[in-house]
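Standup notes, protein team

Yesterday: finished cleaning the Powellomyces hirtus set.
Today: Clu domain-containing protein structure.
Blockers: none.

Input for Clu domain-containing protein:
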Amino acid sequence: MTTDTTQPPVEAPTEAPETDVKSTLPTQAQNGEEQESVANGDQEVALEEQTFLLKVRLPDKLPAIKLYAHAHTIVQDVRQAVFDAPDVNGYTCFYLTFDGRRLSEYMELGDIEGFTPDSELVLAPDTYNDRELRVHLTRFREIMSNFGPQPASYGVDRGSSYLKYIDGREEYRADDAKGTKSKGKKQKSAIVTDGLHAFEEYDFTYGRSSLLSDYIPKGAGELETLAPLKSLGLSTWNPSTADRRSDGDLMYLRAVTLEAEVLHVTCCVSGFFVNSSTDEEFDPEPRAGKSWHEHNFAVTLSKASPLFAKRYSRLLQKVQTRNPLEYIATMAGAYPWAVRSPVHTADESRGLDAHLAATDLAEGFGSHDWNEELQSTRELPQGTAQESVMRDQALYRVHSDFVESATKGALAVLSGNAIPLNPQEPTTTQMFVYNNIFYSIGYDNREAFEYVGGDAAAHVAISKDVDGVKMLADLEIPGLCTLGTVVVDYMGQRVVAQSIIPGILTRSENPLVKYGSVDMGAEVASDPAFHALAETLANALHLSEHSVKDAQGAEHKLFTSVETKGIVGQDERKYFLDLYRLTPVDAEFLDEISSPEDSNEQAPQENAYPHRLVLLRPELLKHFYDHKVRAVMEEEAKKKEADMAAEEAADKGEESKDAAKAFADAKPAENGAAGEKSADSEAAEAKIPKIDLRWNPDAFTRVPTSDAPETVEAHKEQVREISKFLRTTTLNRLVVDCLYQNPPIDSETLVRRFHARGVNMRYIGKVMKLAEDLATDATAKSSHVPSAYFLKLCRQEMIARGAKHVLRALLKDTPSYLMRQAVARFFSCFFADNNIEFDVSSTNTIHSRIITKKHAFTTLTPQQVHESVRREVACRFRFAELPEKFWADRSLPLLRSICLKVGLQIEAVDYFAPQASPKPRFEPKHIIAHYPITKHHDPRAVLAEETLETAHISVTAQPALAVEIYTEACTVFEQTYGPVHPDTARAYTGLALAYHRAGDTEKALAVERKAVVVGERVLGLDSEEVMGWYMNLAYFEYLQASTVLAEFQKKATAETKMDKERRDRDIGVGRALKLMKHASKLWEKVCGGDRNLEGASTDTNISAMLSEVEQFATATRFLHRALETQSQIVGKSHQLTITTQEALVKLYLQQGDFHAAVSAQKAVCEFLRTRLPATDDRAITAEAILAGITERAVHEAKLAAASKAPKPKHQKQRQTLQQPQQRNGVQTVTPSAAPSSSQQSQGRSSAGRQSSARSEPSIEELLAFIGEKNSAPSSKKSRPKKSSSK
């Protein structure tokens, strides 16, 4: 049992955001000083317009809890915030009162009679029942485990975060929980600063990029627990008898204290007490004199056991220091693909946990009418901002519960725990109703896809149906309903779960289908009311009306595909379902995969494309419509310019006559005319033409039509034009985007890039060809194109998808208890050479007595697996140019991609370490778990998305305003989704960047930590977004440490000692380097050790941080690696490479290596000479820097030569008085130690000697000249951000 996840996890933050009535609970986005309640300001402001500080008083002399609220905050939200607060000491069963009156949980604060912003609510203990008892014991167990990871149903370590194990920094303090800020207390860091930086033993050769043993940080998942009890479990006297239940007994527990005393505790309606029972004799009466009857279980145990009281108090303190974002329950948690093998220990309390969870599940089973709950929440009013937020919040709650229940039911169906409705039929055609959800397995049950690919087409149609549900749900058309739909992939099977339309499972004389057809057009319905509703849908999706004929030849007008069905339920709602054909067919690709003899759309042949259900993506249709609109606007603009030119020519003669009059009339009305002109121009810009562009979803299908031949051809030509637009314009734009503007790093990002452009993944082979052609053309023109990494990534994605299909087919015929053996065998064969043979005995199992057939995985060989993958790649992506050992390149990223696509968790060990002799790289023990992959449509928080978009626009020009808008967006996202959600995490990182731009690095650092924690839990530990946020966090840590020292230096005098400040700076930079090392480590593993521009940007950022703490040698190596990467990818003459050269010059100067600085600066000057005229300021500055460095290098060389020559005795004595000074670890010469002009007179002219003696620049002078002295590296160079080769 878990607490509600859609509310903020704790009480009020330390800084209240200024929110309007849209906010129901405070955001956790800001950390700062506590603000005064708005109520203390203008007393005349109405209660409905105020955000105030609400105080809730607790019993037992506990400190009151404060949280921000307003008139529209409901009591239930206040109760949930109090429930989640650490300071409530385990109170879970309570109600809130005001002036002695019990408040309804669904009442708004503004509706309470006599309530003012200064009023207080009081927490009062309530009566326990079975449910409240389970909630209380569950919360007690969570505290006892320090909110450690709860055992998941499918996998391990779901929703984990590693941030606190990376830098060892506490993220949450007890002071924050009380709504106050610690005064003058600096937080101690657990970071180990010996050696200062994290890159001392770093491997610059990417040698560990293929290893997995260091993937998980040290100490991850090892929470410190104190074990206040020896054991806690259910008593053997359960369940309570009828007579005892009549007296209020609910449950009996058995606890063994640290004093070795056995306590039998009665859980009753009024609380908990120790009874007189023993293990042999039942006596329910309170123990004489030592029953300790309390409302809180922990209080009862504390009075019964002093050692429990002591340890439990310490445990509460530890709980309060944990960041609630690390453990708050969420349905959006991500499963890590690489984990440690779980260690199983004996714990009697887990039996209690299982009992509580099972009882909850049993009592809730079948109690939901999911369809009614989903439809009723969608119908909630949303006329105001507050109503919109409350509707989105309620809809997300119901949807999350539905997804969780649907996933459990799908696994019950696949495991045989659900009873089918039609048990006499074959397994593939069976249907199920489980927990009021309808289930069917993804096969062509009714032969509806016989002519487009059978089961393969049905598999695709189920996924496309979810896309159709998303399209209709986003339109929010009144009166149009869709079903709750979840697709679950598990053990190679695809199951679709749907809410049940009222009456659809019962026989009725009146047909429920009012629109479309259920038998592929044999009978077609076209109800006029449904047709009118479909017209509204068609106008939004640009669908054209078309005529179809049924088997009797009757004509029907439809807007949607004939396979899309409209049903009227017994609740009188109109439902659209089977929405996979809301987008038209990809005509050009259909022609490509169709052979001449296959023109009548027969089933595809072997080794052909698996199906003919090749549909266009909805994103592409939007891009195509926008493309047409832009073309119309450009044509209108050209026509308007031509008309204006003609009018000007015609009026040219009259202008001279009316010039004087026009001047006189225009002057007094100058301001008004200008305003009208501005308004007219804005109206013209805002006017976007509406074009009637529509497409027929039934074009290029077997649906009989009664439209005129020319109409049919026009429909086909329109659909074909979209397909051509995809294959020409869109694919070219995608290639340019991925190569130059926003290069993807991993497979998941690549897929998002494709889908955002509206490109199906079946085009990945063609995209590779376009990228190769672009690179070939660029090579012919002697320019560089960063295509190598992109081509490798595309090839990896094709291989991973091919392997996914092969592995799914393998698992489909494998029992779940042999899953680990099958997956281990597949991976061992996949990552092995063709000539390797494995011993089949490795697949033996203790279940041999029930295995009745020889499963396919037992005879797998590497050659079979490789040939199967090659066939899949050639078939699905039209690509047959895989290397001979395609599995050997980027092995670790390939393994990661397959695990994420199939839903596998493997042990984090070094699978690809060199082997002395060939042997299986994977064993069954390495396969930890297989979890279900779900696809569904999350409800949108429209108001929050619009607010976030506004913040994005204003962040550059108005950062202070952006902070306010981002804060409001965070508030709405927290209210809708809860704090642990991908969209909330993205809002957090946007707020952190806004704080940074506004100059508040401390708050940026605090908010970015939240983004990282939430991002790790819901996006994945090695997601590209999360790795970028880690780098942002490292930059903020580095900037904060450097800024504090710089501000102190400004106030310091010459005698001020800054050892402590420098030490604090070093600790902050060291923490930043730890974060950077973790991010770069994951980056290298995800990239497979391949070079890319993002990696080069990371190297330059690390170099800047290392140079700040004078680790110049390591900083130089990182810059050299970045320079080498950029030279290989974009060339030595690219601006990125030259920028790195300039950074290298500054780094050499800091070390005093003038000869190397000269070489680097020469490359900069050569680049500027070819790009800029000699009179340009940048070229002049670069030449001056080169001259100064060269002069200093020559001087240093002469000093070095002179130091090696033998000197007279008196000269040696003089040298001891003029020793060079140590500066940054490099010897430099002070002016007093420089040779005099008389000593320099040998071998050169007097004028030259004197000039050299006077003008030799020092290191400080050179650094000051190029803007580096006493200044931290600029954010532009240090801040991790997207690099572009453009």
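Follow-up from PR in the comments: The mean pLDDT is 82.
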